[in-house]
Write a structure and sequence with these properties.
elongated; alpha/beta; 7-stranded mixed β-sheet; 7 strands
Length: 365
């Protein structure tokens, strides 16, 4: 068994068990022309992922790669990169409802694949659309956690998902870690559990592929096997998007080590590295667990301690060299960082040096 695929549900799903009303698709006859079979269409309802590793971008990529048309309804716009999600803009429920009506009325997608739903209001309009338009199959891939473990759905939405959306789904695809919170007492045989070790976007691609194979008339068990085979082929491709966070962090550290005595402003370093302060902060926290300001301050403190310990320079002169407005500002900064004033630190260093140089004197005392 592939490490990607954890298990099927409590028993294999049999074709037609979802309870959906299957509607016949009509062929269009053009006078004096042959009959054209319309291409299958799948609607994906989910959020946007700027990296294209997941979300609507990945859905469209997978669906079209398997030869099926993809249409979409966006529920949320994420602000994210290869480091993770920083923020969301959740589209209002009326906007989601308008998208649903516009695309379903016009295109009549056979299968609906659902991903990120973050609010009960948006969930309500999706459930209403499913009940009204009755697609032949619904695949739900709950997006409960981000790739870094942050929860993306509130408890009110989770309760509504369980009671309102689950009964409408042909297959529910979820990771094992999500099942405890999402399933609770929901005991059905349309749940497909994936191993927690899957990488970002893989469950998304599996659910999209499953939607394609269901649209092609495969029974549920066969469609899941086909989707698993597709994902296995995709897993071998070394095409995961790589950011430049490591390279940027090293360059930031190099610049700080050269310039901390002249400039302690985070914006200065962000500008010379040609990135936003927000991205620089992301990178530093991801790699070092510290903010850019904390890193700069640590270099300044180290520089000050060296000057205090190895020179007779006045504290006022050191303050001037490190860009402090006056001695008092340096003293306050230094004490906040070290727990000692510059004078106390210098005295401590002198005493320790004297103690090391004349141990016999200390023993006699």
């Amino acid at each position: 068994m592939s490490p990607f695929f954890f298990s099927f549900a409590r028993r294999k799903i049999q074709d037609g068990e979802s309870g959906w009303c299957h509607t016949e698709r009509q062929s269009y006859h053009i006078a004096n022309s042959p009959v054209y079979e319309t291409m299958k269409t799948i609607l994906t309802i989910t959020g946007s992922d700027s990296t294209s590793e997941s979300g609507v971008q990945a859905d469209i990529r997978t669906i079209t790669a398997l030869g099926v048309k993809a249409v979409s309804v966006i529920t949320s716009v994420t602000i994210q990169n290869t480091i993770g999600i920083q923020d969301f803009y959740d589209l209002p429920a009326p906007v989601v409802s308008g998208q649903l009506d516009a695309i379903i009325n016009d295109v009549e997608p056979e299968v609906v694949k659902i991903g990120m739903i973050r609010s009960a209001d948006v969930l309500a309009v999706i459930v209403g659309a499913l009940k009204k338009y009755k697609p032949t199959a619904v695949v739900y891939d709950p997006i409960l956690f981000s790739s870094r473990g942050d929860r993306l759905m509130g408890m009110d939405a989770i309760e509504q998902v369980r009671s309102q959306l689950f009964p409408l789904c042909t297959v529910i695809v979820m990771r094992k870690r999500e099942s405890t919170l999402l399933l609770k007492d929901y005991i059905k045989d349309n749940v497909c559990l994936l191993d927690d070790s899957v990488e970002h976007g893989y469950a998304n691609s599996f659910a999209s592929a499953l939607s394609v194979y269901l649209s092609q008339g495969q029974d549920t068990t066969t469609a899941m096997a086909s989707a698993q085979a597709f994902i296995s082929r995709q897993t071998a491709k070394p095409d995961k998007l790589q950011g430049r966070s490591g390279e940027l962090y090293n360059e930031f550290i190099s610049r700080v080590s050269e310039q901390y005595g002249q400039n302690s402003d985070v914006a200065h370093y962000a500008d010379i590295l040609n990135v936003s302060g927000r991205y620089l902060a992301q990178v530093c926290r991801r790699i070092a667990g510290k903010s850019p300001k904390n890193i700069i301050d640590s270099y300044i403190v180290k520089g000050i301690t060296v000057r205090l310990a190895t020179t007779d320079d006045t504290i006022q002169a050191i303050a001037c060299d490190f860009g402090f407005a006056n001695q008092a500002h340096l003293s306050k900064f230094f004490k906040n960082q070290m727990g000692l004033s510059p004078t106390e630190y210098r005295r401590k260093v002198s005493q320790e040096a004297a103690g090391i140089a004349t141990p016999a004197t200390h023993r006699r005392k």
